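Weekly puzzle thread! Below is a chain. First person to post its structure in token form gets bragging rights.
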Amino acid sequence: MTLEAVPPSLRGELSRWLIEVQPGVYVGNTTALVRDLLWDKVVQYARTGRCTQLYRAHNEQGFAIRLHGDPRRTLVTLDGFQLVAVRNARHAELQGEYDPPEDDDKL
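Winning reply:
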């Protein structure tokens, strides 16, 4: 699971169940019930932050993805595969629909 721009209390809560291997990157082996309960808690308390969860699944990819809080990224299922679609920031900016964050200026 990855967390960006979330309250410190949420990060502390996750560290009870998962190991924070790098800032905002959590890894662990939990039951499906605990995984789902942690995701519900993350979504509830993330506020304006962004969250991603990847976990083992019985499918062709071997994993499933959940996203929350990043309007530029959406999950798309194509032929049974989950893909992450990234909104074309340049196109949206030209249409007046997108105000890039300061970090995007460095790209």
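Puzzle host: Confirmed. Bonus trivia for everyone else. The CA atoms of residues 20 and 96 lie 38 Å apart.
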